[in-house]
Design goal:
Blueprint (H helix, E strand, L loop, with lengths): L3 E4 L7 E4 L7 H16 L19 H15 L7 H4 L3 H9 L20
Antiparallel strand pairs: 1-2
Length: 118
């Protein structure tokens, strides 16, 4: 299945998101994310450290929501809007997206077993 969908990463029409088909590795996801983050941060892809947080690249909450939407289109499956908060860098996010059933969220939204939200 191949198709084109608009990307709004960065708040402007940037490029179309191609729906991925076939097997997708963690490395493939990292490369896709590196390209997207480099564009949003207006830096070269080789300047993107996959272990730096999205916040360190200057991405705001709207850009992170748009990233999750673009990921949903690219992967052809539902991706939580807050995925970038639960997996706050490229390496963690790519690992989760390539094997979601084995990874638990580690971001600020995660509570320890005996914590409550009230």
């Amino acid at each position: 299945m191949a198709g084109k969908l608009l990307s709004l990463l960065g708040g402007k029409k940037r490029e179309e998101v191609t729906v991925h088909s076939g097997p997708l590795t963690e490395s493939d996801l990292q490369q896709w994310l590196v390209t997207r983050i480099a564009r949003a941060a207006k830096i070269e892809p080789d300047q993107v450290d996959v272990n730096r947080s999205f916040a360190e690249f200057g991405l705001d909450s709207m850009q992170l929501f748009e990233l999750s939407s673009d990921l949903e289109k690219f992967l052809g499956r539902k991706v939580a809007e807050v995925v970038a908060w639960d997996y706050p860098n490229i390496a963690l996010l790519a690992r989760y997206l390539s094997n979601p059933e084995k990874e638990a969220p580690i971001g600020a939204m995660t509570m320890l077993p005996d914590e409550g939200n009230w």
